[in-house]
Design goal:
Elements (H helix, E strand, L loop, with lengths): L1 E4 L4 H5 L2 H9 L5 E4 L13 E5 L2 E5 L7 H7 L10 E4 L4 H4 L17 H6 L4 H6 L4 H11 L11 H10 L6 E6 L8 H8 L1 H15 L3 E6 L4 H16 L15 E6 L9 H8 L23 E5 H5 L1 H7 L1 H5 L2 E2 L2 E2 L1 E8 L5 E6 L4 H9 L8 E6 L6 E2 L10 H6 L8 E6 L4 H15 L5 H16 L2 H14 L3 H5 L1 H10 L7
Parallel strand pairs: 1-2, 6-7, 6-9, 7-8, 12-16
Antiparallel strand pairs: 1-3, 3-4, 4-5, 10-11, 12-13, 14-15, 14-16
Helix pairs in contact: 7-8, 7-10, 9-10, 18-19, 18-22, 19-20, 20-22
Amino acid sequence: MIKVYIPRDTAAISMGADDVAKAIASLPEDIHVIRNGTWGMTYLEPLVEVETQKGRIAYGPVQVSDIPSLYKAGFLDGADHELCQGPTAEIDYLKNQERLTFARCGLVDPLSIDDYIKNGGFQGLKRALKLSEKNIIDDVMTSGLRGRGGAAFPTGIKWNTVLETEADQKYICCNADEGDSGTFSDRILMESDPFCLIEGMIIAGLAVKATKGYIYLRSEYPLCKVVLNDAIRTAKAQNYLGSSICDSDKEFDIEVRIGAGSYVCGEETAMLESLEGKRGMVRAKPPLPAHVGLFGKPTVINNVLSLASIPIILAKGGEYYKDFGIGRSRGTIAFQLAGNVKRGGLVEKAFGITLGDMIDRYGGGTYSGKNIKAVQVGGPLGAYIPPENFDLPLDYEAFSEAGAVLGHGGIVIFDETADMKEQAKFAFDFCAIESCGKCTPCRIGSTRGSEQIEKGNLELTEELCDLMDTSSLCAMGGMTPIPVKSAMKHWPKDFEN
C-alpha cells in the first residue's frame, strides 16, 4: 500500500487540499491517504507527500488539475516532476529550522495518539508524574521559558505564584484567542499536534495543583474546535485525562470554550470575564489572575505555544531547552511570515536570528517583486520597521530597546506601494473598533487619533499617543501608539499630504 500524506489544516483546505485528497484516493492504485498536519510551508500548500524507500517525497503546491501529470510522471514512486520539492526533510525552508515545539507538526496524523507517543509524546508527562510540584516548576524556571503570547513574562514565576496561593480549586487557562494580524502559529499547533497542547496543560496542572483546564478558542477557528475536542476525547479514553491520569492519583480535565470574536479578549483578564459568561472587558489589576483569576480562584493563564513548549522541557530537561536562544530570550519561537511575501509560512527558530535574515532566507522577499518598504512585527499594535533596521536581532530585549515588540512572532511585510499614513490611521481605527470601552484613553483616544491623522495634525497626534500610552487600562490602548509613532518617525513624507 502506498502512503500519501495531505494536510488537513485550515490553510491547506482553503487552497483545495480536500479535493486533492479525493482525487488522489480515486487513482487506480492501492493508496492510503493520511490527512496529516501541516509543516507550516504555507506557500507550498496543498503539499502532497509520498512515502518511498528514500523517505517522504514532497510535491507542491498541488491542484487537482496537476494530478494527471503527476500520476503519469510516477509521483507515487517519488519520481521527478516540476512540482517535486525533493525529500521533505531536505527542503531548505524546513531543514534550517530548530524544531522543538513544532517537531511533530506535519510529521504525524494529528488525531493518532499512537503517532504522538511514537514520536516522543507524553514523555514529559511521565517524568512530571514522578516529580514534586516544585521540581516541575524548577525545570520550567531553568529553561528560561517566557510567555509566547506577547508579554514575555517568565512562565515559571507565574506558575510558582499560583502554586504558593492556597485555594480549594485552581485552574489552567489556555489563551487560544489568536487574533493578531499575520499570526497563525497557535492554529497550526492545535490543528497539527493537539496532544502536545493537552500534555502541556496536564503538566501545568500537576505543577500548581490544578484539576481543571479551559482552552479559550477564537470562534474563527472551527476546525481547531473539532480537532481539539476529538483529541480530548481520545486522551480521556486512553487515561491521559480524567480522575486517575496514567493510573496515578492525579486528576485533570480539559474543556474547550469558544470566544465571540472580540480582539480584546486576547487580554488575559478580559478572557476570564468572557469565560465566566460576562461581557469581555478588562479587569483592573491587582489582584492578579494568579491570585484571583477564573471564578475568583488562582489561575495560570498561558497561551498555546507557552503550554506546548512544556512537554519537551519536561522530557529533555530545562538545560536542554535553555541551550537555544540568546540573552534572556531562551528556547525557540515560531515566526510567521505573512503579507506581501514570496514564501509565507511558519518558521521555528532559536531567538537571535536577525529580522533581515528571516525575511531574506525564509520569506524570499516580496510576492510582488517590489522593494520592501516596511515590516510590522508583533501584530496590529507592533512597530513598523524600515529596511535600514533589519539587522535587529529577533529577541525580546533587542526589540524593546528599539521601541518595538516581538509579540506573538507575526511578521507582516509591505512593499514600496504601502501608504504609511494609512497604516498609522488603521492602528487607531482598529483600536476604536476593538476597544472594550472601559477606559477613556482607549475608547475616545483611538477615535480622536484617527481624526487627527486624517486632518494632518501630527503634533496633536503625538500628544494623544503619549496620553494613551501612559493612561490606558490595558495594552490595547497602551500599545496603539507604537505603530502610529513608528510610521510617523520613519516615513515622514507619507504624512505630508
